[in-house]
Amino acid sequence: MENIKNLLESYIPLAKSTAKMFGPNCEVVIHDLTNPQASVMFTVNHHVTGRKIGQSFDHLVKTVLQSEDFKEDYLAGYTFKTEDNRTIRSSTSLIRDSKKKVIGAFCINFDVEALNQMQQFMDTFLSTKVEVQENETTSNDDLENVEGIVDQLIQQIIQNSVHPVMKRHEKIELIRFMDEKGIFLMKGSVEKVASMLGISKVTVYSYLDEIKHKSNEGETK
Asked: Domains of the chain (ranges plus CATH)?
């Protein structure tokens, strides 16, 4: 059986050399997606976004997999803001095992705040606009690839958490985690989660409503 840990660790030299080449503003993170709830297994220059070993992924589903430009297992040049309002330019590439199953992600995060001061010169580099070639459409293969990746994440998340005497509040927390990570943005995900948890689709929606209600209560306090 292939050793996933060893395979992912084989990317560490690449992570270190990438960070060394681009300097302290470049953070590289390796995720173990067979452990989605604590996927960060290696990071260098973690001060860029504050990523720490044992944390979970943030942008994989909501930004990367949901992007029309996610093709061939990678998305390059997307941006997001940190909590202190710094702009981070990122690239994410998926890592597959010998059976083509997605087991990890290799992420590069670059703090471009210093470059923002050179806006005129760096317009091309910093542009978040994506040039779409004519007649370029998202193929069925691309959609199936994304759906397959999210299916794997759902299976792994539930496999890591479900036990025979799982209580209601534990199921709610599990669904909260998946909701925060964007799992339910994918069509059909509610049905898949309901089936794997052995509950109805209506129950999943009721848990999501309860989570939203509690979140709104917390914001108004």
From this structure: 4-126 (3.30.450.20), 140-220 (no CATH)
